[in-house]
Amino acid sequence: MKKLILSTALATLMALPAFAPAQAQEPKHGGNMVVTYKDDVATLDPAIGYDWQNWSMIKSVFDGLMDYEPGTTNLRPGLAESHEISEDGLTYTFKLRPGVKFHNGRELVADDVVYSINRVINPATQSPGQGFFSMIDGYDAAAAGKAATVTGVSAPDASTVVFKLSRPDATFLHVMALNFSSVVPKEAVEEAGADFGKKPVGTGAFKLTEWTLGQRLVFEKNADYWIPGVPYLDSFTVEVGQEPVVALLRAQNGEVDIPGDGIPPAKFVEVMKDEAQKSLVVEGGQLHTGYITMNVTKAPFDKVEVRRAVNMAINKDRIVQVINGRAVPATQPLPPSMPGYTKGYDGYKFDQEGAKKLLAEAGYADGFETELFVMNTDPNPRIAQAIQQDLKAIGINASIKSLAQANVIEAGGAGNAPMIWSGGMAWIADFPDPANFYGPILGCAGTVEGGWNWSKYCNEDLDKLAAEADSIVDPAKVDERLAKWSEIYMKVMEDAPWAPVFNEQRYTLKSARMGGDNALYVDPVSIPVNYDYVFIKE
Asked: Using an 8 Å Cβ cutoff, are 421 and 383 in contact?
């Protein structure tokens, strides 16, 4: 993976790259873009917001020390113009960019960074991102509420922030680019209190100027933004309460620039058969895998032969057709666009007879009965039915439990679901690093009550290998680290706690007047669109 590391282990500072992406068209300034969503936005507090809908809005209102090149997974500097890493990989020293201002007009200082990180870790904030900072020295005490602040974050002067880690962690710079690491002004948070998510103040390219609950949010250009010439739009409006089919119709009529919920499954074939509409569709990969979990702590899934048989029973090509070909068959937990993905590995081949043989070896020659939990939103029940048919062909009778998303997640976290189809809840990486697909959903830490490791799979040897991989922080050894992650995921596939099914592609419709590289509309880290760099051509 190409990583933009701004220093070597010997702490050499490098010059900053250009910030604007190379565009096929010359960007134009001005205009208002209209985006629609079915659901209202829950919050714009970067410490709290954790869903795909508000993720890119938060990214446009706030900044962190690190960021990504638009439309890519390549790290670049953010509010920190440079940084140094100590030779042992335990100390990161960031130099802040001078002259950056919050939307309230106050200049950013290092104490703001210290406050923001501590705010996320403080249990009173109830941030879903708290655990991402566990490598910082003093985290355990602060996260448990036994210390007011973490000892590992300090501001020696107004332009310098120092992080001391308790262990080397190669994902740390990615964590600094997460929304949870966004820098907020203490005075604005304290003034707004619980309403900060509705009255956000950041340093980002846009500032929120209107929020009419249930109707719209309006974001206007930050004239003082620290990146020259950005953003290109004067504003963008997010209209909520729009059913996806209605939003698509409005987009076809030129009233909407981006239907944020995407092309409704029922309309996908119709859109793709119409050349005029198809020309406005943008396709891109996602850091996503759809999979079937099997609870390895309970019979019959405590036997690896059974889990491997399930993998061999699934006709992935047929399931991809259920969603009109909007995915590619998956062979492993990592998606193809993720660093560490094992190229050339074919996974478990579709082989019903081979699957039956494995079941017989496990003592289930006559099959067995089980339950398959699924989120009750189309197309997931239809996918579950296809899985059910595949399992029946080898003697496994799986009754489908179609429930609301929250109920499936609860059953998975409690360990009450023998099998779960992850669709609609499938893991989309928080950052483009293979570690993020392991710890929360395949590592031992994720097996806790309420955790996201629904297979309850815990391989302590692999946890140790994962820790070893993430202790490799030298940029010159990135290939060595990724090779270790490849080894980890291949061992996961041997144990087969999952049956990976497909890697879903993203399809976005944009109006004919919208410009900018297509990658900006399927940005892998600014899901669903990078508002800062798109523009109106007309």
From this structure: yes
User: If the chain, 538 residues long, is cut into consecutive pieces of 10 residues, what is the mean pLDDT of each piece?
Assistant: 27 40 79 94 93 90 97 93 95 98 98 98 91 94 95 98 96 96 98 97 98 96 97 98 93 94 89 93 89 98 98 98 92 93 97 98 98 92 97 98 91 96 84 91 89 94 95 91 97 98 91 94 86 94
Q: Which helix (H) or strand (E) holds 399?
A: strand 396-403
Q: For 1-280+510-538, give the CATH class.
A: alpha beta
Specify whether the CB–CB gap between 188 and 197 falls below 8 A.
no
Per-residue 3-state assignment (H helix, E strand, C coil) for 71-95: CCCCEEECCEEEEEECCCCCEEEEE
End-to-end, the C-alpha distance of the chain in Å comes to 37
The pTM of this model reads 0.85
CA separation for the pair 379, 117 (Å, rounded): 39
Q: Where are the domains of the chain?
A: 1-280+510-538, 290-505
Choosing among 3.10.105.10, 3.30.870.10, 3.40.350.10, 3.40.1010.20, the CATH entry for 290-505 is: 3.10.105.10
